[in-house]
Amino acid sequence: MPAVAARTLTFTPEEYEAWEEGQLERHEYHFGEVYAMPGGTLEHARLIVALTVALAHALRDADCLVLSEAMRVEVLRDLQFVYPDVTVVCGAPTLRNASETTLQNPTVVCEVLSPATARYDRGEKFALYRGVPSVQAVVYVDPDARTVELRQRTAAGWSVAAPVAEGAVEIDALGISLAIDALFRPARAR
């Protein structure tokens, strides 16, 4: 669960979904408890957009949708809902509810890391993604190290590639290469 929660609320999944639709900020749901998601930095927000654009461009002719951090994902039926920074679903999306706010069959999920969330994203949240049968890859973008790390489902389990700082990463589930320089701008002197 996220390390920081402004307040903890308890709901059923249906109460959570109805309540969340009226909130200004996003909240993850873990076994009945609701946790506020921390805000991001300028670079975090920029990287989410860069990643979304790069994926949308690479998948422009594919039967896939690239979705923003506003799309909630159900990772454990009726028990856990999270918000990836970017989600890709290939084929027909399966939605939990008529309001189309919760996706049940993501193909690839992406997280832009921050000091506050990196441990959760790579640890507990990855364990949740691993448990979703449709998830074929998890992409981590590290703004501080300026790297991309890729974890992909294989017949033997999950492969974890070393973080890549230049060139591209091959996302097999999508059949695309994601160029590292499409995400990171040249470093600026401060």
Describe this structure in words.
Helix content is 19%, strand content 32%. The protein has helices at residues 13-20, 42-58, 118-122, 124-130; strands at 9-10, 27-30, 33-36, 64-67, 72-76, 80-82, 86-90, 102-103, 108-112, 137-142, 147-154, 157-160, 168-171, 176-179. The strands form 3 sheets. Strands 1-3-2-6-5-8 form a 6-stranded mixed sheet, sandwiched between helices. Strands 4-7-9-10-11-12 form a 6-stranded mixed sheet, with helices on both faces. Strands 13-14 form a two-stranded antiparallel ribbon. The chain is globular, with a radius of gyration of 16 Å.
What labels would you give this structure?
single chain, 190 residues, alpha+beta, six-stranded mixed beta sheet
Low-confidence regions:
1-6
State the separation between the terminal residues, measured CA to CA: 34 Å
Q: With helices defined by DSSP (H or I, 4 residues minimum), what is the helix count?
A: 4
Element pattern in H and E: EHEEHEEEEEEHHEEEEE
* Rg result: 16 Å
Task: Describe the sheet with the most strands.
Answer: 6 strands, mixed
Order of strands, widest sheet: 1-3-2-6-5-8
Strand content: 25-35%
The shape is: globular
Strands, count = 14
Helix-strand makeup class = alpha+beta
Roughly how much helix do the residues carry, as a percent range?
A: 10-25%
Rounded mean pLDDT is 89
